[in-house]
Hints:
CATH architecture: Up-down Bundle
Radius of gyration: 20 Å
InterPro entries: MFS, MFS_dom, MFS_trans_sf, Tet-R_TetA/multi-R_MdtG-like, YfmO-like
Largest sheet: none
CATH superfamily: MFS general substrate transporter like domains
Number of domains: 1
Number of strands: 0
Domain Major facilitator superfamily (MFS) profile: 24-393
Helix content: over 70%
Organism: Streptomyces doudnae
Protein name: MFS transporter
Shape: globular
CATH class: Mainly Alpha
Subcellular location: Cell membrane
Structural class: mainly alpha
Amino acid sequence: MRTGDGTEDPFDAGAGGILRQPKAVWATAGASVVAFMGIGLVDPILPSIAKGLDATASQVSLLFTSYFLITALAMLVTGFVSSRIGGRRTLLLGLALVVVFAGLAGTSGSVGELVGFRAGWGLGNALFVSTALAVIVGAAAGGSAAAILLYESALGLGMACGPLLGALLGDASWRYPFFGTAFLMAVGFLCITVFLKEQPMPARRTALLDPIRALGHGGLASAAASSFFYNYTFFTVLAFTPFVLDMSPYRSGAVFFAWGVLLAVFSVFVAPRLQARFGSLKVLGGSLLLLAADVLVLGYGGHTAAVVCTVLSGAFIGVNNTVYTELALGVSDAPRPVASAGYNFVRWFAAAAAPFFAPKIEEWSDVHMPFVVAAVTAVLGAAVVVVRRRALTHRAEELEPRHATEDGVTVFAG
Length: 414
């Protein structure tokens, strides 16, 4: 069934629709929801962790830094591993590592131990998340468009529910959210074991340096560079804002739940329609500039403005996530898992940097400056899109508005 603008509706319940998928796809998507919950899980309990472990805001923010630094480095080995042991075994290995390290995180006696366990968690999450996208794309009915939207749905739902779970369990103790995640990932492990059959092995094994070589393509390098700047802004909001809001776990969890709901709605429903009407690069550039304005108001407004702008940022982040994922998967001729690994290798370094530098910048200056820097990086991300438009045109041409080209189609993550 087609939408009003003439594009195929990926949510059509027909044979090619996103809602009619094999059990293996739903099992993988369900486990992906829990995996993405782990990213925002600690948001509402960051102040509680700092208090419980007698740590500073900058020390607790290292929970994100260690997690994403290991995630970024692990992107170089995910394809190497999965092309040798298969997608199913890689998913199970990643899930097992998350179960172990999330459980250990709940037993931490110091912030150093917790940061270390989060690093192990990041390794498991990298193995799972990077492979999950490839598995969903390969097994989903309805082609890559439905598969990517299903993956983005899992991302959005996980990002929305993570803070909520963290708040509900963290109100009793900051340790409980970690134990809860370990339990849910163990359930995901069982679902993958039961419903997902082993995927066909790739014709060619992925070498460790293949993701780096893939970044030699101008378009993919441009998408990764722009996403690097964007992700610095994204994770300044995610990791630093809870300290600025200074709310109880329940209130903070509610704010980031609303943020996650907007992220999910805009990534799955709004972004494809905006792309069909205006074209991907215009949508991406405009959304990045709006995000820059939003974080400036967040930093300089009062408490109510900070809450509203935190929630509103989810809309712009949702749009950006979808467009960046599509560009990363389609802008070059590299195999999708390799292109995704190279792209994620670059962008996750920003996710590791922002939680570390934002509290430091506040210590060196004032509470406003981290958001000024975040606004500047969002603008830099938009500037890369404008300056490198030619390099991104290979994919952008396919995503031009339908009134501009007859061949335009609308087709992430994480």
